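Example record

One chain of 202 residues, shown exactly as stored in the release files.
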Amino acid sequence: MLVGYARVSTTDQDTALQLDALKKAGVRLVFNEAGSGVGPRPELQRALNRLCAGDVLVVWKLDRVARGLGDLLSILARLKAAGASIRSLTEPIDTSSPIGEFTFQILGAVAQLERSMIRERVMAGQAAARARGKKWGPPRTLSEEQEAELVQLWLSDEYTQQELADLFGVGLGVAKLAIYRVVRPDAPYLVTRPRSTGRRLR
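Predicted structure tokens for this chain:
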């Protein structure tokens, strides 16, 4: 069965063009929506829930059904789980065919590459900022000397973090951050107490 989905971004627009194209393609059941692609899109959810094995979700254009590539691939996975497929009337996308499925696999590979490249750029930017003396995390509440003293007391294995926070008159989060900054300045939120002390971080 062909199940159509049409959407416009605002109530000032109409879906006449999309509906005409869907009707011409032989679609009789259409879910029609007016709203931004970043919203909940209840009609899209109804359309997806309606799909059964062998059904095809037909759209005028892929950007009518998905916010972006990641969203599109997520919808595709949901369609595959239901045994359904998707077809675009204005683009060479039809996952009911081997070529269409291959095209989606290429899109998935491109999305993964894009995520990896973004991650590398973020890491490179952080490294450059760190080299320029950029400090991560909230502003200091304690001076460097106070932080060093707090860490020494913590490493003595005689105080818990809460006891040190009370001793220095700061919150527990501040005491933790002071320890993290000294022990693991490169990754301040991943530190644990050195094993030699025999005590767990608490």
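Notes: Confidence is low (pLDDT under 50) at residues 186-202.
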